[in-house]
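We modelled the chain as a single entity of 471 amino acids. Its sequence is:
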Amino acid sequence: MLRFGGLVWLVALVFGLVWSAGPPGQAVSQERTGAFGFVLNVDGAIGPATLDYISRSLRRAQDEGAELIILQLDTPGGLMESMRGIIKDFLASAVPVVTYVSPSGARAASAGTYLMYGSHVAAMAPATHLGSATPVQLGGIPGSDDSSDQPPAEPGGEAGDAPEKREGGSAMERKVLEDAVSYIRELADHHNRNADWAERAVREAVNLGAREALEQNVIDIVAVDLMDLLAQLDGRTVTMFNGDRQLATADLELRYLDADWRTRLLSVITHPNVAYFLLIIGFYGIVFELANPGSVVPGVVGAICLLLALFAFQVLSVNYAGLALVLLGLALIVGEAFAPSFGMLGIGGLIAFVLGSIILMDGSHRAVSLPVIGGTALVAAGFMLWTVTRLVGVRRRVPVSGVDQLPGSVAKALEDFVPVDEGYAGYVWLSSERWRAVCPQPVAAGDSVTVVRVEGLTVGVTLDHRHKEAL
């Protein structure tokens, strides 16, 4: 009971630490005065951790009265659901948001392009680009609103053929495409930017460099660095949800809000492959603890991994039918070890496990990778094969215990045998048990006898003079 209580406290402590984390960059002094702005940095794919990081930073900026937030961006794209959540925060923010693609060589591809169109001011450093905003739908549930996007493998390759493929694709693909087009055009109209090019970025996956984007009214500013950006922002009027606002960025103090440990932790555990492994480790850890009560370590590790996996699946776009199939498959594979069925449970579990793993992520390009699924399935198949092989071997093996092994064993007479119809009968000590024995010859207490047959609870014996003294 104490061990279980310790497990509960440990799990509660881990999640308490995760949820008690304040906004990122909490170490920045709160005593400084004067106009200031926050600088965020998003470098990599956009996902649930990015949404959490930006949302908490926006809340802090509003609470502390920041003049603006500058989001430095370098991303290949990411989850559509997370991107939409970020843009909702942009549009509802009382603090102007400036997206700034930097440093030189950076990109705002795919979901990054939507973020540029959704921000109050869009800026880029020289030698940067944006575009390739065609959404990619991989096996979602028909009628689902979930979609994902990612940049093409290489410019002018498959993405260049996207319009023909999309226009002639399935009804679901056309729905996703038209939804994305309508969404980005509305963002463009809201901020008075080039809506026609935005539509081309979605339909044709086209790209633009910084200078071309400025000339075509896709962005508002090209700035070489943050100081240049602040100089060009000063006096600019932006449209907020509650009216127009003029920026005052001259001599503005910039405070950096880097991603904290909570954001980094979320970015790791919300990766589909990591969440998938956490689920499997957690499941087997709990099973091992239940099969071996008192082991503690498997139960602690399993509980933590399972809870982290469930949290990750909550923020990811998860198909719950797939999750149920994965858990059912794992249960059947484990059941093969505890209730051997010569592979029937194991094979059924393996099929359910693989099918569930494939459909686990609901229409997201950040699905569990096939090599990971294949490798895990091979390990599960190996475990099942080992279990069945051991079972068959045990069934074929000559019994090593029980009454079949008694003939030939040496026993010790516990008393003088008395005459009976079968000869002489008495009790012997055999295999640490008291047995009734019959013998065709008289037997005295302490004599050694050899078992020749077993008849129910009676053994037939003969005198064994070789062992008489030894026993």
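As a brief sanity check on the tokenised model: The chain is about 45% helix and 20% strand. The longest strand covers residues 36-43.
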